[in-house]
Write a sequence for this structure.
């Protein structure tokens, strides 16, 4: 299973609202909305739920993080081989809540290619987006940290960081899919993001903390054109 664009990725982080059974419930809602609307939706379960959630849904699942290590004597770390075995089709890398060294990001991107996994490198500005593009990951998600969890959409608050990242990334590598995130919670936010050149969005709190996650996701999906 591969990711397709335009794309919505829901990362449920470590919120109480997305733990255990609630994690699977949110994944099932994503699956339902994907089936009903035809919109591509991928899901990042909580790390401890990855294996069972990935095996219960037909939409693609990604890990929230992996470490740049080989399997073996590595207590408490997560390796790419484990997430593949768990049913993930790829992983987020360098999320702003889980930053990594550039050398480790490179190891993960290269090893993911060998293992047939997708990488979505999260970046915080245009310079870092450009550095990430050199590694030719499957995708780069530009997310200004100050807007994460704020409910203020990057597409409105900092539209130029999205369009400038799209230009910088595509100049270096046309194949890398550009996503944007931070504060995205409505169909209009998605529409605006796509108009800025993004090929999809990465989001969390807008759905995880919504009173009615399905209704919110349907609205988000309506912004995909
Ligand atoms: O990984 C998604 C992200 O960091 C954006 O979070 O809550 O602003 O949608 P949020």
């Amino acid at each position: 299973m591969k990711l397709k664009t335009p794309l919505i990725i829901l990362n449920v982080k470590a919120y109480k609202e997305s733990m255990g059974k609630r994690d699977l419930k949110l994944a099932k809602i994503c699956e339902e909305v994907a089936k009903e609307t035809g919109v591509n939706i991928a899901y990042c379960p909580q790390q401890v739920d990855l294996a069972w959630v990935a095996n219960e849904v037909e939409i693609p699942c990604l890990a929230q993080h992996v470490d740049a290590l080989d399997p073996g004597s590595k207590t408490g770390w997560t390796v790419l081989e484990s997430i593949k075995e768990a049913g993930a089709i790829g992983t987020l890398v360098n999320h702003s809540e889980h930053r990594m060294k550039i050398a480790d990001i490179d190891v993960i991107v290269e090893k993911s290619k060998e293992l047939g996994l997708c990488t979505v490198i999260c970046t915080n500005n245009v310079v870092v987006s450009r550095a990430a593009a050199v590694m030719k990951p499957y995708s780069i998600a530009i997310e200004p940290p100050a807007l994460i969890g704020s409910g203020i959409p990057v597409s409105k608050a900092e539209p130029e960081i999205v369009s400038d990242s799209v230009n910088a990334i595509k100049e270096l590598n046309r194949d890398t899919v550009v996503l944007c995130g931070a504060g995205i919670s409505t169909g209009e936010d998605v529409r605006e993001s796509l108009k800025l050149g993004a090929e999809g969005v990465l989001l969390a709190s807008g759905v995880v903390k919504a009173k009615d996650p399905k209704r919110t996701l349907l609205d988000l999906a309506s912004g995909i054109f």
